[in-house]
């Protein structure tokens, strides 16, 4: 099966804040937009930020954490799988715009099936993002 772009719509507390974070800080190209939503090109995927004023100006979306490889992985979360070299470049770039990582960039499952670079951080509304990097995406993504 050929991989195709996914579409993900998330809630944010402030549209201008979302534009600043995803568009300016992360550098994602902006697509269509209106007063209450913005489309972003998330590495070829369609990420739509929708205003939810019920979150409040200082509020965050709810999340829990589950243990994985000695870390508390936030749930829910979303992100992109990349080849390892691109992940390393993005991880360095992320250090310039992420104020506090939930999980700093590191190698998860080192030396085991599914070895991957990973990092977690939140947008200003509390949406958790994970970016993964594999040396062999097709062979390692679902390795057990």
Automatic annotation (TrEMBL):
Organism encoding this protein: Microbulbifer flavimaris
The VOC domain, residue ranges: 4-134
UniProt protein name: Glyoxalase
Entries under InterPro entries matching the protein: Glyas_Bleomycin-R_OHBP_Dase (IPR029068), Glyas_Fos-R_dOase_dom (IPR004360), VOC_core (IPR037523)
PANTHER family for the chain: PTHR39434, VOC DOMAIN-CONTAINING PROTEIN
